[in-house]
Amino acid sequence: MVERILVSACLVGRRVRYDGGAKAVGDEVVGRWRDEGRVVVFCPEVSGGLPVPRPAAEIVGGDGGDVLDGVARVLTEGGEDVSEHFVRGARLALDAAREAGVRVALLKESSPSCGSLRVYDGRFAGVRVPGHGVTTALLRRAGVRVFSEDQVSGAAECLRELEGSGVPR
């Protein structure tokens, strides 16, 4: 069976980022996945109810797992608590992944939703620290393997292994 992959909408050119832009990945592998019908496109922030454009937001007091656990928050630079939108979007992303049988995701690095290796530190000074976003945290808790846009080859290898393993979804 062909494995599907959840991909951040901004990475396939959709203008859903906080600044109204996109960060399309030019990797030919992602293009092939799209052509093969493997890609499940999703933006947790927009799905969670946030507009485009929107104020930049960062996780304050931890990372995405801490937001899910209620010990950290996602705030805009102006201090608005948008945690509820991020948690809702993460849950909807997980629902979409489960519905499509997704076990692998390729998400936007450093995002408070999708970061898989690092996120901004919550001081709005452009400083990134090790950690992960809210959606990444929830997907990982559910067993989905999450990769950043800089790890396309790792995601591709993971998909090949899953297809070759015969392990059911």
Averaged pLDDT, please? 96
Low-confidence stretches: none
Strand order of the largest sheet: 2-1-5-8
* Terminal residue distance: 10 Å
Give the CA-based shape: globular
What's the gyration radius in Å? 15 Å
Could you tell me the number of beta strands?
8
Element pattern in H and E: EHEHEHEHEEEHEH
Major beta-sheet overview: 4 strands, parallel
Relative helix content? 25-40%
Question: Helix- and strand-based class?
Answer: alpha/beta
Q: How much β-strand is present in the residues?
A: 15-25%
User: How many H/I helices?
Assistant: 6
The number of domains = 1
Could you walk me through the main structural features you see in this protein, from its secondary elements to its overall organization?
- With 169 residues, the chain is α/β, with parallel strands linked by helices.
- It has one domain (5-165).
- The chain has 6 helices and 8 strands, in the order E-H-E-H-E-H-E-H-E-E-E-H-E-H.
- The chain has a 4-stranded parallel β-sheet, with helices on both faces. The protein has a two-stranded antiparallel sheet with strand order 3-4. Strands 6-7 form a two-stranded antiparallel ribbon.
- Helix 1 links the parallel strand 1 (5-8) and strand 2 (39-42).
- It is globular.
